[in-house]
Amino acid sequence: MPYIPHTPRERQDMLAAVGVSSVEELFADIPRDVRFQGGLQIPSALTEAELLRYFGALAERNRHVETRPSLLGAGVYRHFVPAVVDAVISRAEFSTAYTPYQPEASQGTLQAIFEFQSMMCALAGLDVANASLYDGASAAAEAALLCASSSGRGRLLVSRAVHPEYREVLKTYTISGELKVEEIGLDEGLTSLSALGDMLGSDVAGVIVQDPNFFGIVEASEELAKRVHDAGAALVVLNNDLSAYGLLKRPGQWGADVAAGEAAATGLPPSLGGPFAGFIAVRDAFTKRLPGRLVGVTSDGQGRRGFCLTLQTREQHIRREKATSNICTNQSLCALAVTVYLTALGPQGLREVAGASARRARYLMQGFEKAGLRRRFSSPFYHEFVMRADDPGAVNEALAREGIVGGYPLGKAYPELADCLLFCATETLTRGDVDAAVKAVAAARHKVGVQ
User: Fold this and answer.
1) From residue 436, how far is each of 204, 306, 405, 429 by CA, in Å?
2) Is 31 exposed, middle or buried (0-12, 13-18, 19+ CB in 10 A)?
């Protein structure tokens, strides 16, 4: 940290050392009429104790969302995270670790990342996974680019049932126009197979769907995968909550070539927009196109098992202009949290979390129907569902009055669903929480109405 001069004499000595007599001279190249005039309206300095007291008072004004029942999902989910997760990731050797460029000094970090990769392969039902990515949105975009670079084709088809923010990121990635992104229409909340059939052609590099999709509906369809593959395109399946695979078919089991998305729900709490941990897994044929880092198992000179970075595809490594991606950030600490969570739960624990979440969601949906709301789509869902009301805002206001975080207003991203809310339930909701939410909506039904 640079030394900051405190006394007038020290400041004058520093100015003299750089050859000026005043601070004003340092800004001489900036025209005076565009420079700030006068003094900044900054309050006087506080002592450390006063500063802590001040911010403590501000914190007391916050409503502690983490302790309130929440019916909000839409890509960020609240699952119970065992204490062992924080206990492990708080260890200094993990929390302060940097990129494991030197395998001889980074075996612990490399092994932890390798375990993450192995778990992503198992959950995706695919052959190879990388060492995490920045977040689910960038992972989705990288998966799309992987399809294009592998095939040399110039069109990408993405379902409108994919998270709207992911679609926006994909548009940003392809803004140069070299790749054309087209959206597939919907049929009762699902990717339309007829629309997909009309759009497929020999120039399509990949088709991107989400399972469960943004509306919580199960998209898994071997017929969809067959149509994509018959056209010579790759199928990308996205996911925002890996707990779903405690119940549902894994992407590789129903035809996905690439699985990507967000792993944060299994190990990290919702936290005002991050941090996240993206993942991407592929069939073996796409391994050399994977972006970011990949940890492999090797042997040292004495035949002992070891771990190292392999297929280093980033441009600042050996690949240079042949790099498959310029992704520079793998969320290894966040990925470690996911790894510890999945290790602690194991396959049976993940099934129990998924089963409890699905049951809570159905109980909540049935309660809302009794309270006067109506389900918008009839297709099977995991732990999110869409309900319709004349005044969605009144529904959320009624819930907020009872200290409950309401649903996601779908009109923001889907104008045709302006009368709908997307609700979510996980195992963290108790039966009492659900009953309180239903009671709040029922009490306000004269304001809510039903179409």
Assistant:
1) 49, 54, 12, 11
2) exposed
Instruction: Please state the φ and ψ torsions of residue 129, each to the nearest 5 degrees.
Output: -130, 155
d(CA 212, CA 220): 8
Residue of 183, 224, 242, 156 lying closest to 414 (CA atoms): 183
pLDDT, tens digit (0-9, with 9 covering 90-100), for 126-135: 999 998 888 9
pLDDT tens column, 54-113: 999 998 887 766 678 999 999 999 999 999 999 999 998 888 877 777 888 889 889 999
Class of domain 83-341: alpha beta
397 three-state secondary structure: helix
Which residues neighbour 173 within 8 Å (Cβ) at sequence distance 6 or greater? 141, 144, 145
Specify the pTM: 0.85
Please name every residue paired with 70 in a beta bridge, in sequence order, or none if there are none.
Answer: 405
Where helices occur in 44-82 by DSSP H, the ranges are 48-60
Q: State the amino acid at position 189 in one-letter form.
A: G
Where are any strands of DSSP class E within 274-348? 278-282, 295-299, 305-309
User: Which CATH superfamily is 67-78+346-448 part of?
Assistant: Aspartate Aminotransferase, domain 1 (3.90.1150.10)
d(CA 214, CA 194): 20
* 188 within 8 A of 179, measured Cβ to Cβ: no
pLDDT, tens digit (0-9, with 9 covering 90-100), for 11-43: 888 899 999 988 888 888 999 889 888 888 888
CB burial string 100-119: b at 16+ within 10 A, e below: beebeebeebbbbbbbbbeb
Domain map (residue ranges) of the chain: 67-78+346-448, 83-341
Taking alpha carbons only, the member of 43, 26, 44 closest to residue 35 is 26
Burial grade of 67 (CB within 10 A; 0-12, 13-18, 19 or more) = exposed
Tokens found for residue 443: 């009490």
Of 303, 305, 444, 291, give the one whose Cα is nearest residue 372.
444
Going by their DSSP bridges, the two strands 384-388 and 305-309 should be labelled as unpaired
H or E stretch covering 171: helix 164-173
Assign 96 to helix, strand or coil: coil
CA neighbor of 333 nearest in space, from 132, 152, 176:
132
